[in-house]
Specification:
It contains 19 helices and 2 strands. It is mainly α. The chain has a two-stranded antiparallel sheet with strand order 1-2.
């Protein structure tokens, strides 16, 4: 009799560079670019300064992507920062980034994106966005509320999670389609806005004298925090390194291509916003894209933008549903998460249990509405942990020279990928990340300290997990 086939223990390597770039584009471009520019304009108060913050964010994203490319070449495994911090600073630091990702980083962002998608869907189907609670169950400091909006958000999370459980084939088709539609829609909006929109290039010059007038260097640095949060996701391809073919070659390509597309679109979109409205009218406007679209195209402008935002949110949710579970899968494989999360689905070769765990926690955050507070508290953690991951590169270069030289060079031409501009650009990224975190704590200490406390709650959980293991 033939022997029963063993269950797979590793994920399937079937993603190429375009797939990785699509994950980056979808993960980065969400609702942030449609809302954050108004906040940034309020912080820096001049058109040149506003664009300079977005350009600086793009340069930092490129510097980080380059460093992550080398880290992924050293450690082509699932998990992103978790893998790099474990190698550079030990398992506790790695666990804390994974803990934050599960509690708030990925799960909270998925919940926020799903609720946002329900609200935008409500423009076409108003009943889907009703927040009136049908059932309310008090649970101490918060309450469980079931409403039409919550059920719509849960349906979105469940449907996208189911697709990604069913293998990289269906997941890749969904991801690439959403990313392609998103890029084409934004490019069309930009072209149409400049070609036929009602705007003025004088808005780029009608501002207080001097590029930083009305703002301070501290305010400019503070504005970098929401900008970098809006750019967050440039490292998404690193989370699926274990599933990328020839990762030493293709992950750098995916990160460079995806980040390049995002930076170009972000700069052009911010230029379009300034073309539509002077910086004084943009400042403090939360629905920046809606205001700009209405100024450019009239009353139907916001309606034109709604499906673009919807595709953007769906693509972002899909990318996070794909990337996040790879972190928990890596943690579980090391005995630091639910043991079942390390299982690979015998048919689909996906971390199905990890995907289900993330979907369940995200759904709970939707029902309790706590995702808003979690994201407010831990927003700076995106900058903090990515900065620590790039810092780990300096330590790993020293310690892992032998490992780098042992990489199969037949697959990567003559040498492993090296971060561009090392050590200067990675050092710039680390210093900029540290400055943004310190400035955020100094300027707005309460949510930042609450975020640090939330991260610290992972410490006893880590020791309990180690003791159990």
């Amino acid at each position: 009799m033939p022997e029963a086939s063993q269950a797979p223990t590793s994920l399937a390597r079937s993603l190429g560079p375009l797939d990785g770039a699509a994950i980056v584009v979808s993960n980065v471009i969400g609702v942030g670019i449609f809302t954050v520019p108004g906040i940034v304009a309020q912080m820096v108060a001049a058109p040149v300064a506003t664009l300079s913050v977005w350009l600086a964010g793009g340069v930092l994203a490129f510097a980080g992507a380059s460093a992550y490319s080398e880290l992924a070449a050293m450690r082509p495994r699932a998990g992103g920062e978790y893998v790099y911090l474990r190698a550079g600073f030990g398992p506790l630091a790695a666990f804390l980034t994974g803990w934050t990702s599960f509690v708030a980083g990925f799960s909270g962002a998925i919940a926020a994106g799903a609720v946002g998608f329900a609200e935008y869907l409500g423009r076409f189907v108003p009943a889907a966005a009703s927040s009136h609670p049908w059932i309310r169950v008090p649970l101490g400091f918060f309450a469980l509320e079931i409403s039409a909006r919550a059920l719509t958000a849960l349906a979105v999370i469940g449907a996208i999670s189911a697709v990604h459980i069913c293998g990289l084939g269906p997941g890749r088709i969904l991801q690439n389609t959403l990313a392609g539609v998103k890029v084409l829609a934004l490019a069309g909006l930009i072209g149409l806005g400049f070609a036929v929109g009602t705007g003025s290039f004088s808005h780029f010059t009608t501002a207080p004298a001097g590029p930083f007038s009305g703002s301070t260097i501290s305010g400019w640095l503070l504005a970098l925090v929401p900008v970098m949060f809006t750019y967050s996701g440039w490292n998404a391809a690193a989370y699926v390194a274990e599933e990328v073919r020839e990762p030493q070659r293709n992950i750098p390509r995916a990160l460079a291509l995806g980040t390049g597309v995002v930076v170009a679109l972000y700069l052009l979109l911010n230029a379009l916003y300034l073309y539509a409205l002077p910086v004084g009218r943009l400042a403090g406007v939360v629905r920046t894209a809606d205001a700009a679209a209405e100024a450019l195209f009239g009353a139907w402008g916001a309606a034109l933008l709604t499906p673009v935002v919807g595709f953007g949110l769906a693509g972002s949710i899909s990318a996070m549903v794909l990337a996040g579970p790879r972190v928990y899968f890596a943690m579980a494989r090391d005995g630091l998460f639910l043991g079942a999360a390390s299982r690979v689905h015998p048919r689909f070769r996906t971390p199905a249990v990890a995907i289900v765990a993330q979907a369940a926690w995200s759904g709970l955050l939707v029902l309790t509405g706590t995702f808003e507070q979690l994201l407010t508290y831990t927003g700076f953690a995106v900058v903090l942990f990515s900065g620590l991951a790039v810092l780990a590169l300096f330590f790993l270069r020293r310690r892992d020279a032998a490992l780098q030289s042992s990489i199969d060079k037949s697959k990567i031409d003559n040498s492993p990928f090296r971060a561009f501009g090392y050590p200067y650009l990675p050092a710039l990224f680390v210093f900029a990340s540290a400055a943004m975190v310190i400035n955020a704590i100094y300027r707005d200490p309460r949510p930042s300290l609450a975020g640090l406390a939330l991260i610290a709650t992972g410490i006893p959980v880590y020791f309990l997990a180690r003791r159990r293991t």
